[in-house]
Amino acid sequence: MAIEIRKDSQIVEVATAAARHERLDSNVVENANQLIRDLASDPNPHNKYQIAQLVKFGVNDIIKQDTNWLDNLADVKRVGFGDKAEFDVKLPGVKAFIQAKGATTPRTKNSRKTVSLETLSVSARPVINIVELQNGLANAADIINDASFQMECAMNGYIENVLKTAAAAWSAPYYGTGSGLVKSTLDPMILHWIRVAGGAALFGDIAENTKLAALTGFVANATSGTMQFAGNIINEQNQNAVIGTYLSAKVVNLINPLKEDGTDGFVFDDKKLYIVPTGIDAGMRPLKVVFEGDVFSTEATNIDDLSWEIRLDQYFNAAIAKGVRPYMGMYADSSV
Amino acid sequence: MSDKFRVNNPNDYPVGIITPEKPYGVNIPPHAFTMCTQDEIDYLTATCTMFQNGVLRLAEEKQKELAASMGIEMEDNANFMSDDDIRKKLSGNANQLRKWLESDDIKPYVMDKIATIAKTMNLSMNKILVLQDKLPDYDFLDK
Q1: Quick check: pTM over 0.90?
Q2: Which residues in chain A are contacts of B30 at CB distance < 8 A?
Q3: ipTM
Q4: Does the CB of A221 have a partner CB in chain B at under 8 Å?
Q5: Residue A224 resides in a domain
Q6: Domain total of chain A
Q7: Which residue segment(s) compose the domain that A181 sits in?
Q8: Is A111 inside a domain boundary?
Q9: Residues contacting residue B3 through CB under 8 Å, at least 6 positions apart
C-alpha cells in the first residue's frame, strides 16, 4: 500500500522532534527511520514526493514556532497563496479648534491608509545522495533541521534589517543612541511607552540586556559618587545574566544564533534594544510582516550524480508603516 | 584644568555618552550639546562610532581636525552636512542629486533629514522622482 504523509502524520511529529533534538523513544525514532528507508529503497516518484512532503511539513512546523518572536514585535499576517495582506495605518485625523463663537470650524476626518505588501521568497535547496538516504546514512531530521535553521536565519535577518534601518531615522522618543547603555537617554524612551500605553517590554540580545542591571543603581554617596544596588538585582544578574524587569518593563532575550557563514556574526544585531509598548493592539505596530502560504517543496533527482534535492520556499515580506507615529522604540548602542 | 570642547548633537534624537569622567553617562538632548575634555573626545572616538558617523560633532575647526585624525573626508559627505549644505545639494540638478544619493554611505538618520528638508522645498518633479526612488519610505508629494 502506498504511504501517504500528511501534515498531522505521526512521522512528521517524530521527524520534527528529532530535528529539535527532543527526547524521543528510540523505538519510535527507529520506526520513523525505517519508514523513510522503505520509501527511499523504492525511489519511485510517489515515494520521493512523500519524503519531500515530510521535510516540508517538518520545516514548516519549526519555522512557524521559531518565528513566534515576531508576534511580540510585529503586526504579523498569515495569508493563503495568491492572497494579499492589507495593513491599516492610522493617519493624523480629527482635530479640534479654538475659535470665535459661531465661526466656521474647519472639517477634519478620521483617516487611514492601507498598505499592502508584495512577498519575497526565502528558499533552501538541500541536496543529498539518494543512496545515502536508502541506507540510512542521511536522515530526514538533519535535512529538516538544517533547512529550517537556514531559512529562519535568512528571514529573521531580513526582517530585523528592515526594522533597524527604518528605526534609525526616527526621532525622540522613538529612537536614541549612546556609547553604551546610558540611563538618562534610555529611561525617557521607556517611560514614554509606560505613559502612553501603560507598559513596555524590552527585546534585545543578551549582550545588551545584561547591561541593564548596571543602570538600576542609585547614588548612595553624592561626594564619592558610589552606586548602591539592591541585593536581589545582584543575585538575579548573577543567576540569569539578565534582570527580568527594568523600569517596570519586562526584559526579553532574543534568541540569537550564530550565522553559519564562517564568521562569528549573529543573526540579530546584538547592539539594539527594542522598546515595545505592551498595552496596544498589534495592528498599531509599525513593523508589518506577511507570510503567504506555508512552506512548499519541489524535488528532483539528478541521474548524473545520484543526488536528490528538495527546494523549499516560504513567501514572506516585511515593511515599516508608521502612520502618525511608530508604536515602538529602538535604542542603538554605538559602542564598539 | 584641561580645556573643554562643545560636543554637539545635531540630530532629532537623544544621544548618550559614557566616559571615565562621566561614568553614569550623560544624555545630550536633540540639538543640544555637552562639554568634554580632549581626553574624553579621544576616549569616545576609540570606544564608539558616533564621531565617525557624524552623530556627534565638534565646533567647525575642531571637527575638521578630528575628522582628519580619523581619516574621514568631510567634504561632500552627507553624514557631516549642515541643513544648509543639504539644501544646496537638493537645489542642484536631478542627475547630480541621484549621483550624490548613490555615491555616499549615507546613514538612515541622514536620509531622514534629507527627506525632511526636501519636503520643505519646492522641488521639480524630476528631483521628486529621484528622491522617491532613493527614499521609497517617504511620500514627497504629500506635504
Answers
A1: no
A2: 171-172
A3: 0.79
A4: no
A5: no
A6: 1
A7: 10-205+254-333
A8: yes
A9: B37, B38
